[in-house]
Each structure stands twice: as C-alpha cells, then as structure tokens.
Specification:
- With about 150 residues, the chain is of the alpha/beta class.
- It is built from 5 helices and 5 strands, in the order βααβαβαββα.
- The protein has a 5-stranded parallel β-sheet with strand order 2-1-3-4-5, sandwiched between helices.
- α4 links the parallel β3 and β4.
- α2 packs parallel to α5.
Amino acid sequence: MKVLMLHGINHNMFGKRDPVQYGTITLAEIDAQLQALGKELGAEVESFQTNSEGEMCERIHQGFLDNVDAVLINAGAWTHYSYGIRDALAILTCPIVELHMSNIHAREPFRHLSVFAEIVKGQICGFGVDSYLLALRAAVSAVQAAKQA
C-alpha cells in the first residue's frame, strides 16, 4: 500500500514556528513517526513538503499517475483558500484524509473553513503529531475497506 503524505506551506519550519500551536517537533521527526507506523500497518509512506502551491499541485498530479492508494494532506494555510490544490485533490480516486496539528475550529475564524472538506474522506485536527498518526490509521483503514467492498 502506497500512502502519499503532503505537507504544506511553512511546515519546513515545524520545531521553530509557533511552538504554542505546533510544539517543538520537526518535520523530519513527524515523517520518521509516519514511516515507523506505516511499516507496522503495511504501508509505504512517502512524504513531500513544499512552499509552492504549483509544486503541490504537480505532486498531487504525480500521485494520481503513480496510482497511490491514499493521500494525507496538511496543507497549512492553503487549506482555507487554495481552490487550485482543491481541484488537484479532486482528480484523485483514492481516499484523502485532511489533517492539522492544531484544532482549526478553535482558532482564528478564517481557519474554520476548509475548501477541501467536501472532497476528503475526513478531517483530523487538534492532536499535535498524533493527528498525523491518526490520519495514517484512518487512510489505511479506508483503503482496506474499499478493497473488501
């Protein structure tokens, strides 16, 4: 099973950026935890991070061409306004799980809206790094359920 983890804008600064909201964990540490859990669950997790909206869309397109089994996305601020990324995600035919380390519904009003919400399998937010691990578990479960159907 191939799972694509998409990290959005400013996530390369995890560990330094707003530790009150995001803690001190780095992107490399998050990816290492995803890799370890992926092995336990029988999934290969490939991670990608960019600060370029166009590069994110290109990577989503490549995920479609590679026929990935599931996509996890923490798009950061793009979640709230990027119709380009939303349209790229809508091309995918696999389960998509949106995730956020912080509880976007308990933050500034502009963060309450996700332009991805209508096209993703589900959203997980507010659990710090555990949001990533819960999202991976949910994606693997969704793929397994689809194969049994």
